[in-house]
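[job 0417] fold request received: D-lyxose ketol-isomerase
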Amino acid sequence: MKRSEINAALKEMEGCIREHRFELPPFCSFTPEEWKTKGHEYDEIRDNMLGWDITDYGLGDFKKVGFSLITLRNGNLKMDKYTKTYAEKLLYLNEKQMATMHFHWNKMEDIINRGGGNVLIRVYNSTADGRFDDTDVTVHQDGREYAVPAGTQVRLRPGESITVYPYMYHDFTVEAGTGAVLLGEVSMCNDDENDNRFYEPMGRFPEIEEDEPPYRLLCNEYPAAAGAVR
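[job 0417] inference complete; emitting structure tokens
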């Protein structure tokens, strides 16, 4: 992706967040220059990859496959100093974007429609060898439990949510004609390096072509802490 494309995507997400009156923590507004001055008091952000994020799954077609997100809080299963057992994210998709089919080995999560259009979550159970299972999927949606056939798209209108369990395949798209959507995710600790199982092998972070200065640093771009060595 070009840096200009990333900058535009982040600003578009910011606009949606303002529209729905969701307030962000201060670190989300740090400029790249400000990050150079931040010391070890912000290690939790660096170590746990909090902040702005973009994924195009390494496919290079962000306008169709991928989305923008912010990790607001997260624990860390690899570092004992961080004892949080939970994570929270915001995700933004416009009408033409989708997130690809995947499950998590360990993470349970609630995906919440925070505002905008309707999101469609397609669900499958997984077989032991990682294929789609043709059995009915048990859905937990805002305190209601029910079953749907494999491959069903569960519609979430603003305010609605679904619980996604480990080994439950899911992808999501925006229902045509309903507009861009702001999603929340409340989950167990997030570990993108080890806990994602994509149905089709793919990457996570984009390769960036630097055609203009960054508007915000992404969560995998922070400079080392300023000041004394740990």
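[job 0417] notes: The chain has a mean pLDDT of 95. The radius of gyration is 18 Å.
[job 0417] exit 0
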